[in-house]
Specification:
The complex is a heterodimer of chains A (about 300) and B (about 350). With about 300 residues, chain A is mainly alpha-helical. Chain A is about 65% helix and about 5% strand. Chain A has one domain: ABC transporter involved in vitamin B12 uptake, BtuC (Orthogonal Bundle). Classes of the chains: A mainly alpha (about 300), B mainly alpha (about 350). Chains A and B meet through α4, α9 and α11 of A and α8, α14 and α16 of B.
């Protein structure tokens, strides 16, 4: 029972990270059919405002030294701002390009972001110790759960409920859902395309920055390459959820979190290093069964 | 003009091969460093042409082909290294591989066949997905390759490099394989498979109604392109003498895709042109990163600026000229360019 509970908390907290990542990608894909490979690097970039740019091994804190509310706000705003700027500079000019072209553009943008960080901060991972008290374990019905895990699950749940409410009830949310369903039709019915797209990019950037914060407070390290693996899992989550489906992306994220945790627990020790390979293998097998993902949306359905 | 020559459109591969031959000959007038650079470019031609065979005709971006390059490279390391060194560094190898000490051409082809076999297995699943989902799945293929090869310590040496691979590959050897890659790509593109795949790219539904099996066309191109990429990997390993799993990961994926896209992914000439143009640019930037003295001042760019410049060039290119430098045309002899194909027109998302 205790073991099951422990497993549940691990799976939920890992799944929350993946779900938030997948949501950020699905939001942009929904309105623009853009597979944003720069998402992970937006996250890394936002998180690097915590430390001052230096090529030394130990970096002094910059935003990281500020008071907690200000720090969180700055990082989130940095993520949103960077995401919006990337829309202005790059993706706005590619509105009518093929998905393959925009995909390549985002891949290139991610590379530029990552190497800008390399120039500013060098390639060494750096220690950033945020809120050390949060990792102290708490006792919950016999399972030892770090406070941070609970916080992560809590934040994710609150955010998901908030976003679901926004998408269902508010005007902006309605516009975003309409745009995701049929962008051209939505524009003809008076939805302001630029506003919806900016909104999607802003939200996605904020989510990216939030994941960054959660990851850093968990590991205590920032690394210019930390965005890549995270982003890849998030992508795979959106694919198994069904490209373009927001709910599917979230579900896909939690599913991958659960499978990863299960494999971590059950794989023999020698095979544990290959965990991610097994996860991707499981994903491919799932896609054999449902090639369009769990929820098929109009984005993948083909019309003749 | 000779009808055989015209019927098989041999002008394009001939011009490309002659251009590469000219480049190789010119390099002999320069320093040893220049010759090494030209060899590197020729090896890149093999890889990017391999990538082109799939991406060019199918229009599906693949982020996973560097896995095939890596598989080819490791295959060569397993079969050509001194058995005593393998015993020391890679104790987990099967005895058959452990004692293998194959001639280099044979080993390169064997490594490429291994890559093609992996592509057959992976492709038969991945290529059932729709275009965008397939691209993301190829990305996870790359991740699977990286996870396995960086952790399978007794067979791949883990995340550290395997050193001591014999290095018989120099300019002529690389040129021969570049020519082979171009010929294979050309034969595929004029075959019924190339034609079928292009029709699937243009109008998937219409192609299917004409009895073309999209999945099979994609798979043929995927396997052939993995084979050519595997050859490129084998050459790379036997040129540098070192293999490392991270050498075949994101950064090389980015470089090769950029070359293909900047040259123009829709034609073979685009792929080769892209490699040459971008290699020259990268070479210049690397020189600037090392520091170049111009008159009184020394220009010294920080590490990483090469990638930034290449990335920015790529983004500008995608915005300004998404069909690449060649715009789907081919160099040909006599200088008559085939009309640009309409394949790169924006497809309306339904």
């Amino acid at each position: 029972m205790t073991a099951a509970l422990q497993y549940l908390f691990d799976a939920l907290s890992l799944g929350s990270l993946y779900a938030l990542g997948a949501l950020g990608i699905a939001l942009i894909f929904g309105v623009m059919r853009l597979v944003n490979f720069a998402h992970g690097d937006v996250m890394t970039f936002a998180i690097f405002v915590l430390i001052a740019p230096t090529t030394e091994a130990v970096a002094p804190l910059w935003v990281g030294a500020w008071s907690t509310p200000l720090l969180v706000l700055t990082v989130l705003v940095a993520g949103a701002a960077l995401s919006i700027v990337s829309e202005w500079l790059v993706f706005r000019h590619l509105r009518h390009a093929t998905p393959a072209t925009t995909m390549m553009a985002s891949f290139a943008l991610g590379f530029v972001l990552q190497n800008t960080l390399l120039v500013l901060h060098s390639s060494r991972p750096k220690a950033v110790n945020l809120w050390p008290t949060l990792s102290a374990p708490m006792n919950l019905w016999g399972a030892r759960v770090p406070g941070l895990q609970l916080l992560m699950i809590g934040i994710t749940m609150a955010l998901l409920i908030g976003l679901a409410w926004m998408l269902k009830r508010s005007r902006v949310g309605l516009e975003m859902r309409v745009a995701a369903e049929n962008f051209d039709m939505a524009r003809m019915l008076g939805v302001k395309a630029n506003r919806v797209i900016l909104m999607a990019f802003g939200l996605s950037g904020t989510l990216a920055a939030l994941i960054g914060l959660l990851m850093v407070s968990q590991t205590g390290l920032v690394d210019i390459r930390m965005g890549g693996p995270m982003m890849l899992v998030a992508f795979v989550s959106t694919v198994i959820g069904g490209l373009g489906s927001l709910g599917g992306a979230v579900l896909g994220g939690f599913l991958i979190g659960a499978v990863s945790t299960a494999l971590q627990a059950w794989l023999p020790l020698d095979a544990r290093a290959f965990r991610d390979a097994f996860v991707y293998l499981a994903v491919i097998l799932l896609l054999l069964w449902r090639p369009d993902g769990l929820f098929v949306t109009s984005a993948v359905r083909q019309r003749v | 003009m000779n009808p055989f020559f015209q019927r098989h459109r041999l002008g394009t591969p001939l011009v490309l091969c002659l251009a590469l031959l000219l480049m190789t000959l010119l390099s002999f007038t320069g320093s040893a460093g220049l010759q090494r650079t030209v060899t590197e470019i020729l090896i890149r031609v093999v890889m990017v042409v391999g990538l082109f065979i799939f991406v060019g005709h199918s229009g599906v971006m693949s982020f996973g082909h560097m896995a095939f390059v890596g598989i080819g490279a490791y295959g060569v390391a397993w079969t050509t290294m001194e058995p005593s060194m393998k015993l020391l560094m890679l104790p987990g190898l099967h005895t058959l591989l452990q004692q293998a000490d194959l001639p280099w051409v044979f080993a390169t082809v064997l490594g490429a066949l291994l890559a093609a076999f992996v592509a057959l297995l992976a492709g038969s699943v991945i290529l059932r997905l729709s275009g965008i989902a397939a691209s993301i799945a190829t990305f996870s293929l790359l991740a699977i390759f990286n996870v396995i090869y960086s952790n399978w310590d007794t067979v791949t040496g883990g995340a550290s490099s395997i050193v001591g691979i014999p290095t018989p590959v120099e300019d002529w050897q690389a040129l021969a394989f570049a020519v082979l890659a171009i010929v294979l790509a050309h034969l595929h593109s004029i075959s019924r498979y190339g034609l079928g795949l292009r029709s699937v790219r243009e109008e998937p539904v219409a192609a299917q109604s004409c009895g073309i099996n999209a999945w099979r066309q994609l798979l043929v191109a995927f396997v052939l392109s993995a084979f050519v990429c595997g050859l490129g990997g084998g050459l790379d390993a036997q040129f540098l003498g070192v293999v490392n799993p991270d050498a075949y990961y994101l950064s090389r994926t980015f470089t090769c895709l950029t070359m293909l896209v900047i040259g123009g992914s829709a034609s073979l000439s685009g792929a080769v042109t892209g490699v040459i143009v971008l290699s020259v640019l990268i070479e210049l930037l690397v020189r600037f990163e090392a520091g170049v003295t111009l008159g009184a001042m020394t220009i010294h760019l920080p590490t990483g600026s090469q990638e930034i410049v290449v990335g920015v060039v790529m983004v500008l290119m995608l915005i300004r000229r998404p069909a690449g430098l060649m715009r789907g045309r081919d160099w040909s002899w006599p200088m008559r360019s085939t009309p640009a194909k309409a394949n790169l027109k924006a497809r309306t998302p339904n």
